[in-house]
Design brief:
This protein is α/β, with parallel strands linked by helices. Helices cover about 40% and strands about 15% of the residues. A 7-stranded mixed β-sheet has the order 2-8-7-6-5-3-4, with helices on both faces. Strand 3, helix 5 and strand 4 form a beta-alpha-beta unit. Helix 1 packs antiparallel against helix 8 (about 240-280) and helix 8 (about 240-280) crosses helix 12 (about 360-380). About 50% of the residues are buried. It binds pyridoxal-5'-phosphate.
């Protein structure tokens, strides 16, 4: 088996064929600037508005509540910075969690330098925040709660509806980074009391460099990119028509197939988890066993460096990750794995396998067979493992 086995779908996904076909006319045929007056521009404008409706329908939002951005990072930055600015006179306290994506955490650090106070909620061993902690953390001057819908490393799904209910009981705005969850699991902004939600096209079969921020009607956050009057004057810049069309098409497709894809992925994911835990000694599953993304599995293998595992997997054409693509390259263990209570030496031996809807049981069997050999081989070279085995006897 020498073909590419791509198991890093939490980092990015392949654009779906149907999505690409929808996008193509907007590069060369309908290349008009949707903001212009002439009839030629109308076609572009109609495509953008159709995409906005597709993106809205998936989460039960109104089209006019969807703002296109250049991706998840921009949506997260916008939600936090512009809310902070707009509600500063009410208070300067923000609540988030310790396991957010860096697009949230680094923005919070930036806001701290600007005089805001941020509470970073702990998570339990499965990676969930505790609702009691959230309730206790809310103060008179709290203006925003930002908790991700599902974690990009360990796949744990947060109790979003409960968080939204608590936020609204206390009159606090609720933003969720749903970049991993949107188009993967059901989300309903009204039912879940979500005021703002970030999503990104390339995480669900759409193109890169296009995202959305849902902003509930009535939430008065400032514009983020100043310039032209696009996006109801809240996000300037010539519309990325092909990108928007792609995101919309991918959202609609995901909505139609979601139930079926979830069922299919869960079978493959659970097979992977069961085999790894049963056949590879001193392995553990990170994240919640059942409240997790259908396509996510994350393991730690003791006495092993995650990076070495990735290199050996790569030699077999298997693409996986040791955490998040954004932190690989640094030697620090993942902040998410530390937050769920793992010691540094165990957190270093992590492996994230994130499935696509096309990943098969055969591929997973091949990967597990090879992984077993890789783990054995790396451990046989580890003095720590040797000592450990001696001490067991
Ligand atoms: C990928 C990701 C982002 C960043 O999205 P981009 O579109 O790559 O900027 C933010 N949050 C989470 C949870 C992600 O997985």
């Amino acid at each position: 088996m020498n073909k590419l086995i791509y198991l890093d779908n939490a980092a990015t996904t392949q654009v779906k064929e149907e999505v690409l076909q929808e996008m193509l006319p907007y590069f060369r045929e309908v290349y008009s600037n949707p903001s212009a007056i002439y009839t030629f521009a109308q076609k572009g404008k109609e495509a953008v508005e159709k995409a906005r409706k597709q993106a809205a329908d998936l989460i039960g939002a109104k089209p006019e509540e969807i703002y296109f951005t250049a991706g998840g990072s921009e949506s997260d930055n916008w939600a936090l910075k512009a809310t902070a600015e707009a509600y500063e006179s009410k208070g300067k306290h923000i609540i988030t969690s310790k396991i957010e994506h860096h697009a949230i955490l680094h923005t919070c650090e930036y806001l701290e330098k600007k005089g805001f106070e941020v509470t970073y909620l702990d998570v339990d061993e499965d990676g969930k925040i505790r609702l009691e902690d959230l309730e206790k953390a809310i103060r008179e001057d709290t203006i925003l709660i930002s908790v991700m819908a599902a974690n990009n490393e360990i796949g744990t799904i947060q109790p979003i509806a409960e968080i939204g209910r608590i936020a609204h009981e206390k009159g606090v705005l609720f933003h969720t980074d749903a970049v991993q969850a949107y188009a993967h699991i059901p989300l309903q902004v009204e039912e879940m009391n979500i005021d703002m939600l970030s999503a990104s096209g390339h995480k669900f079969g759409g193109p890169k460099g296009i995202g959305i921020l849902y902003i509930k009607k009535g939430v008065k956050i400032r514009s983020f990119i100043h310039g032209g009057a696009q996006e109801r004057s809240r996000r300037a810049g010539t519309h990325n028509t092909p990108g928007m069309v792609g995101l919309g098409a991918a959202a609609e497709l995901a909505g139609k197939q979601m139930e079926e894809v979830i069922k299919k992925q869960e079978v493959v994911r659970d097979h992977l988890i069961e085999r790894v835990l049963a056949e590879i000694p001193y392995s553990r599953l990170n994240g919640h066993r059942t409240d997790r993304l259908p396509g996510n599995a994350n393991f730690c293998f003791r006495f092993i460096e995650g990076e070495s595992m990735l290199i050996l997997l790569d030699q077999l054409g298997i693409c996986a990750s040791s955490g998040s693509a954004c932190t690989s390259g640094s030697l620090d263990p993942s902040h998410v794995l530390l937050a769920i209570g793992l010691p540094h030496e165990i957190a270093h031996g992590s492996l994230r396998i994130s499935l696509s809807e096309e990943t098969t049981l055969e591929e997973i069997d091949f990967v597990v067979d090879e992984l077993k050999k890789i783990v054995q081989r790396l451990r046989s070279m580890s003095p720590l493992y040797e000592d450990f085995v001696k001490n067991q006897k």
